[in-house]
What does this fold into?
Amino acid sequence: AKAHSPKLLVTIAAPAGPTHYQNLELNKIHSYLDWVNLMCYDFAGAGWTEMTNHHSALFKTMQGDPRFNCEEAVHYYLSQGV
It folds into this structure.
């Protein structure tokens, strides 16, 4: 491969919903990445839940699926070595 200046980065826009991130082999791919952008939003849109809730919940909410929040996503990514 040709050398680039400045150095190019390998990044991903990573999903924060468990129905998506659990399909990734994060424990394998993270070593090839320079940067991971965790997309912690759209937790209450169509296809995620049956009820209206916070769009970008930082922590689990009183109602709805407790897995759809930024804290849960961060814990999962950390558990996979990211």
Remarks:
- The beta strands are 11-15, 35-39.
- The CA atoms of residues 19 and 48 lie 9 Å apart.
